[in-house]
Amino acid sequence: MHFWRNKKLKQTVMTLDLFLVAAGLISAYWIKKFLPTPIQGLVVDPNYYMVLLLLLVASFFTFHIFNTHMVYVQERFRKKAARIISANVAALGLLIVSLYIFHIQNVSRLLLFLSCGLAIVFILSRYLIMRRIVFRSPSLQKRALQILVVGSRERAKEMIKAIDGSCNRYYKVIGCLEVSGEEVGKTVFRDVAVIGEIKDFKKILLRQVVDEVIFALPLNIIPNVAAHIAFAEELGVEIRIMPNWQIQTIMFTPETASISFEDFMGMPTLILASSPPDDFGLLVKAIMDFTLSLAGVIILSPLFLIIILAIKATSKGPVFFKQVRSGLNGRHFEVYKFTTMVENAEELKAQLKAANEMDGPVFKIKDDPRVTPLGSFLRKTSLDELPQLFNVLKGEMSLVGPRPPLPSEVKKYRPSQRRRLSMKPGITCFWQVMGRNNINFEQWMKLDLEYIDTWSLWLDCKLLILTVRAVVKGTGH
Length: 477
Hints:
By secondary structure, the protein is an alpha/beta fold. It folds into three domains: 6-136, no CATH class; 141-275, 3-Layer(aba) Sandwich (Rossmann fold); 280-473, no CATH class. The protein is 48% helix and 14% strand. β3 and β4 (192-197) form a beta hairpin. α1 runs antiparallel to α2, α1 (6-33) packs antiparallel against α4 (109-136) and α3 packs antiparallel against α4. The longest helix has 28 residues, at 6-33. It is globular and about 80 Å long. It starts with 5 loop residues before the first helix and ends with a helix.
């Protein structure tokens, strides 16, 4: 699940722009109210509710026609401003025609023109802010969508040039695959080269961070194409197929992925995505993550200070434990925790391998001798996890999601288990609230995949509530 996908971002921008149109009309009403000849109140005259509804409908159509919500192409401000102004003026024209058709009278024309002007100012401001975030943010570039292209011929070059020409730092083509080994090493466009043959497809997906695969070759000339698409689906990697699709010729039926069509860089593509299809829900989830984690850091700051002083008073070494974990689609990041073990804990781990109580690649001991007395309390109450609120603020984690594994553990995953990396890792999930010490590795993996397949906002809220209950009862350690 990669929230800032092109489709999700466009839908988010469209929704935001419609809110700004409504804000323009409401602001115009309040501004005109204080002019020398105020109009009747919005609440008093029901006509203005109809005006707002008609304006939003008109704006929805004109924004689509003028493509004002296109965010993946960075264009000159003058050109973008012209499209935004044209879309709003066209919406105003449709609104005036609609008022005439529906015989809605006593509507101030000054109010309508003022609201149109304010909407233009608001949307242009939104564009300037988002352009800075989407195209120029170094932190966003670090989380760039890693794209692997199958093919290096004209259609592939056309797609790669479109991505490069968009000046969008959020998309990064890591390389191309070709049918023939003779093409390996050949430069396709600028710094994009053929990095392997199609037969290396599975190895590359397991070895590198790949968020999306674009099939830019006719499917019927790709050897074992059905197996490759099925493997990417199993890992949870998004698949994009360029015309001519010919998907009916490969005898492939998705097991978990949903199928949709999308305009990408001005080209029609077919998408197979294993992530939850609820775009609006994922937007709300991202907003919840930021606001709740920020509130948590502020409210719990006195508790942070108490724990820091307690760790300093009872043990040597750093207060925070930092460890590299695998995040979304295998991206590495440092997870933060309060220190709960002795200083040489990693060295002692090798001596304790025989005492490992968890099956699979995970190392876990119920009464780990490396844990300090204070660390035991922090783990029992899950207070050692609090610094991960900073991981959530940085966008590396979510409040709810599969726990981030060690890279060494991921190497031992089966392909079907790697799909748990297709959603952003979280502080809590099914495993935490169901008594994690009583669940084996296979059950843990199944629970994480069940979370991905059944995800909803309500499920996240439910898991957050159950997590609080587990922490209070001490059953989540």
